[in-house]
Amino acid sequence: MIFDKIENANRYFPLHPAFEAAFNFLTRQDIAELPAEKFEVDGQNVYVMITNKPGKEFGAAKLESHSDYIDIQFLIAGAEKIGWKAYSECTKTEKSYDSEKDIEYFSDSPQTYFSLTPGSFAVFFPEDGHAPMIGEGLVHKAVVKVKIEKKQVINYSGEPYVS
To answer: Among 2.60.120.280, 2.60.120.370, 2.160.20.10, 2.40.50.100, what is the CATH number of 2-149?
Structure first.
């Protein structure tokens, strides 16, 4: 998981070939005016879902994980807390993996919580269970879905190699 401010996004470009395009979308001048819908950046390889929904209570937000996509969650307006727990430690499957929707739900409790404020983002990899949308009032956000090439692995130096 990565948690940072959007002005530091370029630091993460080396982690995935599509991160530059993903973060460029998030820095659009008109992002706050975009309607709540899906926007394709690079077909199904990179797309963005804009939402503007009421936040959930702590107990209502379930841990989720994705296998085929990395999530970049960017808060446009409002306040949001997100729960986190390592996927390897999520043991209480609530809804098995749905390959069409690329999502699995858990009833485990998050290990920790952090707050997104407008202009901040979190990146969730398949190893990250996350419980988003916790908050009061409207949570206006963009979720970028970045396709993972299954054989591509990123080492800690930021250099991709094929396993």
So the answer is: 2.60.120.370
